[in-house]
Design brief:
The chain is an all-alpha fold. Helices cover 82% and strands 0% of the residues. It is built from 12 helices and no strands. Helix 4 runs antiparallel to helix 5, helix 6 packs antiparallel against helix 7 and helix 11 packs antiparallel against helix 12. The chain is globular and about 60 Å long. The N terminus is likely disordered.
C-alpha cells in the first residue's frame, strides 16, 4: 500500500509538472501574438490540471481566465465574457472575492462588457472591483481596478470620471513599483482625453509612453499597439506633421495585414 501511495503521489506530481509546462507554453505563445496556438496549449493544460487536481481546483479558474483573454484578443467578446464569468466564479469560490486573481477577472470582464456597449454592467462590475481592491493589501490590484473604472467610464461617455480615475492611476504608479505591461490602454485613453481638451503636450507624453512600453515589453496585443499608433497619428496631424503621421498610419496598415 505504501508503494502504491508513493506511485500515485509521483504520478500526480508528474501531471502537475506537465500541466504547468503546458500553461507556460500557452503564455509564451500568447506573448508572441499566436493566440490560436496559445489556446491549444491552454486547453491541454486545463485537461491535465483537471485530471491531477479535480474540477474545483483554482488552476482551472486560471486556465479559464487565460482562455477568456485569448478570445478577447481574437475579437470574440461574447465568448470572452462568458469565460470571464465562469472563471471568476470558480476563483472566487476557492480564493475569496477580494483575492487579486478574482479582482483581475472582474476588471477584464468589465472591459469586455464596455467594448460590447453594455456600459451599465461594465460600470457596476468595475465599481465592485474597486470595492474589493480596497479590502486587499495588494497595491497592484488597486491600480488595475482604478484603471478599469477609468476605461469603462470613457466607453460610457463619462469623460470627467475617466480622466480623474486615470490620473489617479498615474499617481499610484508613481508611488509604487508595479508591472507596466497593463499600462498602455489607460495611457491611450488619457491621450485621447487630453487631445479632446487641446492639451497636446500632455497627450504626446502619454501616448509616447504607451508606445515605449509596448516596445519594451514586446506588447502582444495588436489591438493596443494599433490604437496607440492611431492616436499618435492624430496627434501628429494636430501638430501639422503630416508626413510623420502618414508613416505611422502606414505602419498600422502593415500591422493589420
Amino acid at each position: 500500500h505504501t508503494a502504491l501511495a508513493e506511485a500515485e503521489r509521483v504520478g500526480a506530481c508528474a501531471r502537475a509538472y506537465s500541466a504547468s509546462a503546458l500553461y507556460n507554453l500557452a503564455e509564451v505563445e500568447f506573448m508572441r501574438g499566436r493566440f490560436s496556438e496559445a489556446d491549444i496549449y491552454n486547453q491541454r493544460a486545463e485537461r491535465v490540471f483537471a485530471a491531477a487536481f479535480g474540477p474545483d481546483h483554482f488552476s482551472l479558474g486560471q486556465t479559464g481566465h487565460r482562455r477568456a483573454v485569448i478570445f478577447q484578443e481574437l475579437g470574440d467578446l461574447e465568448r470572452a465574457v462568458d469565460l470571464y464569468t465562469a472563471s471568476g466564479e470558480k476563483l472566487a469560490g476557492v480564493l475569496g472575492e477580494n483575492h487579486p486573481l478574482v479582482i483581475s477577472s472582474h476588471t477584464e470582464r468589465a472591459q469586455a462588457l464596455a467594448r460590447l456597449g453594455r456600459h451599465d454592467e461594465a460600470l457596476t462590475l468595475a465599481q465592485q472591483a474597486l470595492r474589493f481592491s480596497d479590502q486587499t493589501e495588494d497595491g497592484y490590484a488597486a491600480v488595475i481596478a482604478q484603471a478599469t473604472f477609468g476605461l469603462v467610464s470613457y466607453e460610457a461617455d463619462r469623460e470627467d470620471d475617466a480622466l480623474a480615475a486615470l490620473q489617479t492611476v498615474r499617481a499610484l504608479r508613481a508611488d509604487g513599483n508595479y508591472p507596466i505591461i497593463d499600462e498602455p490602454p489607460g495611457l491611450n485613453i488619457l491621450a485621447e482625453i487630453y487631445l479632446s481638451k487641446g492639451n497636446v503636450a500632455a497627450a504626446e507624453e502619454a501616448i509616447e509612453r504607451a508606445i515605449s512600453i509596448q516596445r519594451q515589453t514586446g506588447g502582444q496585443s495588436l489591438d493596443r499597439i494599433g490604437e496607440s499608433r492611431r492616436i499618435f497619428a492624430d496627434l501628429l496631424i494636430m501638430k501639422g506633421e503630416e508626413e510623420r503621421a502618414l508613416r505611422v498610419a502606414r505602419q498600422n496598415v502593415e500591422l493589420a495585414q
